[in-house]
Structure formats: C-alpha cells, structure tokens
C-alpha cells in the first residue's frame, strides 16, 4: 500500500473537487458570474419522474416543455404558461434561449437527448439510467469529457445526495473495515418476462406514438407499455431491466465509496434468455483493478430475489429488499439508503476516525448540486464521466448474460477481447433517420 496515496488525503481531495470557478450559461469559464442569475431550462418528459424533476428545478426559468403526450404537456403548461411547448425533443433543443435541459424520457431515448443537448452547448440533468447500452453510455461520457469545464451534467440518482451515503463513503475510505476486496450489491425486485405486446387498437389522438418509439425498432401501439418504468423497462428495445434501473442507484454506493471506474472482466448468469425481455433474475461479477489508494476489487450484483450470503446471523437481514455489503479484511459494512451497520473484526484501533473538517459536506440537494454546477463550474458528483462509467459497467453485465460467457473487457476500445459476437449487444441498431450523435 505504500505506493498509493493514503485514504485521508484521497477523502479530503475528492470532497473538495470542483470548487473555485464560475461558469457562464454560454458554457465559457469566467470569474465573477452571479450564482443568483436564473437558468433558462427545458424539461423534456413532464410526468412521472419528469414531474418530480420539474419540481426540483422550478425555481429557475422554465422556458420550454416537451412531452409526446399532449395531455401531460397541457397540464404542465398550465403551471408554466410562459414556456414554449413541443412534442418532439429534437425541435425543442433548437430553441435558442435554452441554457440547460432536464431529460426524463423513457430509457431508450436518454442517451440521444443527452448527446444532442451537450452538442448544442446545454447543461444536462438526466434521470437514471444515463443510457440503454454500453456504447450509448460510452458516447455520453465521451461527449461530456469533450465539454468538461464548460458544461455541468448530473445523472438523477437522487439518493446520492443523502447524508447516509456520505457517512458510508467516509467509513470505507477511512479504512473502518480495512482494504475492501469484495462488495455485494442487490435489489430483490423481480420484473415480468413475456414478449413484445401486440397491437391494441388505434393510437390515441393526444399521443405521438412514433416519437415515443423514437430510435427503437418499430412496434405497434399498446397501452401496456405505459404505467411507469416497470411497464416498458423490461423490454430490450426500451429498457435494461433491473441492472439498468435499480442498478443505477445501488451500484452508485459501491462506485463512490471505492472510486471505481471501468472493469477488466465481467461474467453473468440469469433466467433463461428471452429475445424480447430482460432477465427476471440476474447475477453478475466484475473485476476492478487497483487504484492509487486501494487494492483490486471484485463487485457482485444480484436481482430478482437473489442475494449474497450474510456474514453473521446477527444481521438478521434475510428480508432486506436491497442493500450493499462491503467485505473488508477487517470487517463488514452493510448499508442501504437510510441505514448502515458496521461489523468490525476485533477492535477499531486501526480506524482513523474522521475529523469534522474531513467530512464530505452535506448536499444542498441533488437538483441543486446540478444548478450550482451550471452557475459556478463546480462539477456535480454524478456528472456524466462518473455516471457514464457506472452505466458502462452495469450494462456490460447484460452483454455477458446474453452471450453466456465471461468477457475480458477492453474499455478503451469498447471491445470484448477475442469475442466479436459481443458487438451486437454492445452497440444498438437504430431506426432509419435516428442518429445518436446528432
């Protein structure tokens, strides 16, 4: 460990990243811009999570609203009558006075909105997951990196802003359980399987079905695709199952605490392969290389009722629906959104208890972090570099599952070494007329 920086230095450095610069709405760094100046925001997708995200930014200037459902659009427009309205997000992004974009569409269009908006110099907040394939996540991340220092981005993993997350990260990085060699992450939600839905009558007049389908292969209208992410997320063309959905939240704990980036290997297994729907249960394993302050780590994922073994009956957590279990050389840390249980092996004399000045400061709120980033240049914690790598990691598990084999991952070239058949699952094919990098 002598060649790596100590945990205390890393914790203090990571908590202070991004302070001290100011950014104009145009995306050009400049000192002295007032953080009180309001942003002109376009909200794309205004109901469901879109409504929550709209409420999260409504103190700014809402200048554009977009939704493929004209009833939803009309309801939002009553609250923000000054905003221009659109049914096609591509036309919305052409509005000249927009500074920033909030994307809350269905998963299969997230990457498109993100990339198109950044290509036009817009700050972006995107509801999780950031993308719907490994390639899409990579393109979103690379587009952000080309604009780093000019644009503020944030993936909507709202629980990242909680104090419990911060205390958990401090415990891991301070060495409360020593070097972490394994981390287990799970969510017991079990989606339905089945097939793509058949045609079910004419498309309602208020719904622009072709725009809802967007870049995905064409499917006939069926209202069964609506009703929240659990309705459409289970289909390969529209979502990425629980590893894409809840994995964005739960893997975030492991990614932040251990400063993970891109894996070197991935393997997965799950329920019998269905050409239409994502697995009803999935387990996955990734190898992550050592970095400057910790050794190599194995990361495990479980969903659909699968769970890791618990270290002690004292935890009595067999009914725990979701959670993260860090396995260290000197103990265990079990945590979820709102609790953490530390189980050291022996005493804690090795643990360097954090001082007040070393604590990760409280968040002003997940949406506010992004707004502050837009106005001051301080990078939000879930920016598209961080969250893009997280999504590349997660969605690689679906590639390994569909192939039924372990992958040696070449992250730089976006290739599974010696496995060209993986390409069909790494990169999606889009309907004619839809361009990811538009």
Model description:
With 438 residues, the chain is of the alpha/beta class. The chain has 2 domains: 14-159, Rossmann fold; 160-192 and 240-358 and 383-426, Dihydrodipicolinate Reductase, domain 2 (2-Layer Sandwich). 30% of the residues lie in helices and 18% in strands. It is built from 14 helices and 15 strands. A 9-stranded mixed sheet has the order 13-12-11-7-10-9-8-14-15, covered by helices on one side. Strands 3-2-1-4-5-6 form a 6-stranded parallel sheet, sandwiched between helices. α2 (49-57) links the parallel β1 and β2 (61-66). The longest helix is centred in the last third of the chain and has 20 residues, at 384-403. The protein is globular, with a radius of gyration of 22 Å. The termini are far apart.
Question: Could you write a compact summary of the structure shown?
Answer:
The protein is an alpha/beta fold.
Structure characteristics:
14 helices, Rossmann fold, 18% strand, 438 residues, Dihydrodipicolinate Reductase, domain 2, alpha/beta, 2 domains
CATH topology of the largest domain: Dihydrodipicolinate Reductase, domain 2
Overall structural domain count: 2
Average of pLDDT: 90
Helix content: 25-40%
How many helix segments? 14
Find the count of extended strands (DSSP E, 2+ residues): 15
CATH superfamily caption of the largest domain: Dihydrodipicolinate Reductase, domain 2
Q: Helices and strands: which structural class? A: alpha/beta
Query: End-to-end span in angstroms?
Result: 45 Å
What form results from the Cα inertia axes? globular
Which regions are unreliable across 5 or more consecutive residues at pLDDT < 50?
17-33
Name of the top-level CATH class of the largest domain? Alpha Beta
As a percent range, the share of strand residues is 15-25%
User: Would you list the SSEs in sequence order as H and E?
Assistant: HEHEHEHEHEHEHEHHHHEEEEEEHHEEH
CATH architecture of the largest domain: 2-Layer Sandwich
Strand order of the largest sheet: 13-12-11-7-10-9-8-14-15
Q: How would you sum up the major sheet?
A: 9 strands, mixed
